[in-house]
Specification:
The protein is an alpha+beta fold. The chain folds into two domains: 190 residues, Dna Ligase, domain 1; 79 residues, Up-down Bundle (Acyl-CoA Binding Protein). Helices cover 45% and strands 16% of the residues. The chain has nine helices and eight strands. Strands 1, 2, 3, 4, 5, 6, 7 and 8 form an eight-stranded mixed β-sheet that branches. The longest helix is centred in the C-terminal third of the chain and has 19 residues. The protein is globular and about 55 Å long. The two termini are 35 Å apart.
Length: 275
Amino acid sequence: MTKWIYSFGAGQSEGNAGMRNLLGGKGANLAEMANIGLPVPPGFTITTEVCTAFYENGRKYPGELESQLEAAMAQIESVMGLRFGDAESPLLVSVRSGARVSMPGMMDTVLNLGLNDTTVEGLVRSSGDARFAWDSYRRFIQMYGSVVLGVSHHRFEDLLEQTKRAVSKEDDTDLTADEWKEVVKGYKQIVEKETGNAFPETPKDQLWGAIGAVFGSWMNRAPTPTANCMISRQAGVRLLTSSPWCSATWAMTAPPACALPVTPPRAKTFSTANT
């Protein structure tokens, strides 16, 4: 069985600095830092070979990918003492795109993935701060709606400004938990109006949606097959997993190298992280 995911951190690592082509620059470096004993939080890297397999098999993921991802997530949950999608102690994740070298056009970060109408209440209880939890939730909807679902961020910003004017407040930090709840409701209405679909509530669906967005952003970085192929040799996806209020876990995905002049496959991403 092909190994599609490499875990690292929390005192162990399955990769190293010499696996740059397989793990991407950040993935290889994070694995090496874990190997030499630096306090790298637990995470995982999805290899470049996943992208190759995806396009060679009619845009279908390798059969073992989902089970390997679930196992990697379970390992992170065990270390963090939190569970992805849990109503009481939710593990929040973030999707970050990256590359071997810095380049423009990468997908923006999505933080707090895993929040929904149920897990936000778990975050309220675990953090003891309702305002923080609902502000985190609205930030997630805004980032996910803009980055993953393609809704203009101005739509969200306009509603936020309208809300502040309605309650005679100037700064975001002045809004209460109840006022953030209303913003969340309004943001969801914007998403449904703009996309024709309700905002995804299931954390697993949120995660797979983010994967597709990362692959899409990578494919859109260059206009020609040759340029796309050259970029694909450097592109990568970084994934971060964390507890609800502190950074914790990293993970990476990198698209594959390709032979010119073939148009390279799109890149797809999983991710996990929090603010």
